Amino acid sequence: MEFQTTLGSEVTFAGMGVHTGVKSRLTLCPAPSGSGLKFKRVDLPGQPIIVPTAPRMNGVHRCTRLGTDEVSVSTVEHVVAALRGMEVDNCLLLVDGPEVPILDGSAAEFVQKIQAAGVVEQDSPRRVLQIMEPVWVSQDHKHLVALPSDELRISFTFTNDKKHKALSDQFAEFVVTPAVFAEEIAPARTMGWISEIEELRRRGLIQGGSMDIAVVMSQDAILTPLRFPDELVRHKILDLIGDMGLLGHLHAHIIAVRAGHQINAMLAEKISSSVESYIYSRP
Ligand SMILES: [Zn+2]
User: Fold this and answer.
1) Which of 51, 86, 204, 241 could be 81's S-S partner, Cβ–Cβ 3.0 to 4.6 Å?
2) In this structure, how many other beta carbons lie within 10 angstroms of the beta carbon of residue 202?
3) Burial letters for 89-105: b for 16+ Cβ neighbours within 10 Å, e otherwise?
4) pTM exceeds 0.85 for this model
5) Selected catalytic residue, list 78, 235, 253, 261
6) Catalytic (active site) residue 261
């Protein structure tokens, strides 16, 4: 039997949100069995709790936002991916602003601190979200298929449709275990355009020549040394793990072609709409 887990101790992160430019602190706290992943906006009156459920997930622009127009938290996907990737079932995430810090644009620091805090077993059996039949969504030329599986496997195809000179088509496939997540997926950073970085610098939100919040691209080149030749598709897998991780501890083989946050949210909604019949306690 697999048991639920939480963190061995609290860990804290601080930094800027890449979309709002607002600095925030994020503290991951141990949480009781059965509580799942929940955010708490500690800067707002009454410290409202935001529970990640797929129907309330909004794919906006290039990040995933939870909550309502009044009470929300943005860019949750990298920290949720880190918690799911490291198989942490229960965690209370305290955040004192509207957006999770971007850090270096990857999940590496989240994983390092989760490993340092330790992942500890609790006394209840783990609940696994297991799909029983194929579920799929398509939008334009983007496709996501979730097949029944007794593990989380992701097969992702990125196609260089805009013919960027420094990019190529990329394919990667991983069975997501904590070791694979920590070594192969978590270090992959988000991509950002040099124009976006210059805008953040113009607004005084990042230091001098700092470009260490993303892999920075111009119209015809990649300006940041890469951590993996296929860092782009690995980060897309990271985002997909985070977006699907909002549903729970998912076992499925997800085949993704050109997927992004918007279609990820559509698949998550479709899976969660029949969630009653899909959840079971793993024997
Ligand atoms: Zn991302």
Assistant:
1) 241
2) 9
3) bbbbbbbbbbbbbbbbb
4) yes
5) 261
6) yes
